[in-house]
Amino acid sequence: MTTSEQPDLMSQAARETAYDTYAALRDTNPVSRVRMPTGQDVWLVTGYDECTSFLTDYHRFKTSPTVMPEGMEAPALPEAVVRLLGGSMGSVDPPEHTRQRRLVQQAFTPQYVERLRPGVQQITDQLVDGLLDREERTFDLVEDFAVPLPLTVMSDMLGIPRADRDRFRLWSELLLSLDPTSAQSAPQGMSPAEVMAEIEEFVRYLDALIQRKRAEPGDDLISGMALAEADGERMSDDELLKMVALLVVGGLGTTQHLIGNMVLALFRNPDQLRLLRDKPELAPGAVEEMLRYHGPIEISFPRFAAEDTEIGGVPISRGEMVIGVLAAADRDPGRYPEPDRLDIERTANRHLAFGRGAHMCLGAPLARVEGQVAITTLIARMPDLRPAQSLDETPWRPGLTLRGLTALTVEF
Ligand code: HEM
Asked: Where is the signal peptide, in residue numbers (predicted)?
């Protein structure tokens, strides 16, 4: 295959039309060769069945860039970024991936995470108390609710002092802004040198934190991971640092955007908002439907073909980059009747918003609990919650990987 399509997918305007762009690609060919805004030619997998089989086949499609095409090299990354994320669980394949995942999996089982629900509820209630106390009956749902909720949950879970939360938010945003598909400039107009200085500071902070946790373990996840054993082996300091960085990068923006996307989806579908208000017991299924409808992660990590192969009959050459478009697969009419309709009572909703296969989201049980608590609490305690801005001009963040809002003014 030599020709590549060049759809506009990253600009802010393109965010609103992205689902149509994906549908056009999927209808023409669920495995299409596309030139990314980064200039790179990749295969985009937009069909549900094709995406599922691609994500679950780690023998043929590797996450680690060890099989790049001739002449192409992995981009050289600054040393601090390599320390934080190079070779972390998200970018290695089994058996190394299996080993790392086993050391942390226990803290993220649905049973374990269910025990965190009362704490998540308490954090959410405190946030809502603060909002209800305000004189003006309006707030920014993103900045005042969707950001602090996962930030507080994650800081408490990891055992990070609450006073340092804002630094974690900044570090997580800075790392996300380095993603070549993010199209997001660094927050607060920081220069590249300032960004790097902050990322180096993040490394120093984590090094010191890990030493403290090793010396005086507490009842938190970092201490737990430091002591966890699999096959008689423990995580090294370096592995622990990468794991914490991965959790911070993977767990904050995603959950924040889930909350914003859910509220937007319900505002745009008032019948569904009414239904959820009348029947809060529908919340677990409603969250799954909103993950399918507006999942906060639009594309998978890139994979590389380990051999000359095919997906859905389309030949792929060894080394070529393949990306699963989760947002497109989750609106495949071959899988879902009326895929563009939000239906919180939808059944058989095995969406791909958390991926599938070996790298399927580690934090999914936690994100589900946070999503359920956030939406039921907002609806119950602010029964008149409504948008205070036009929903036609929704400020989606630019970029391809994350789908989320930069702000959403609401009244109650
Ligand atoms: C709604 C919120 C979230 C969504 C939509 C989401 C989505 C995803 C997806 C799609 C992947 C797999 C990517 C691929 O295979 O290419 C993934 C992996 C991952 N996620 Fe999440 N995530 C969310 C929340 C979280 C949270 C709260 C945490 C941590 C507390 C987390 C930690 C991770 C980690 C560590 C991985 C890598 C797993 C591995 O490589 O084995 N995520 N996530």
From this structure: none
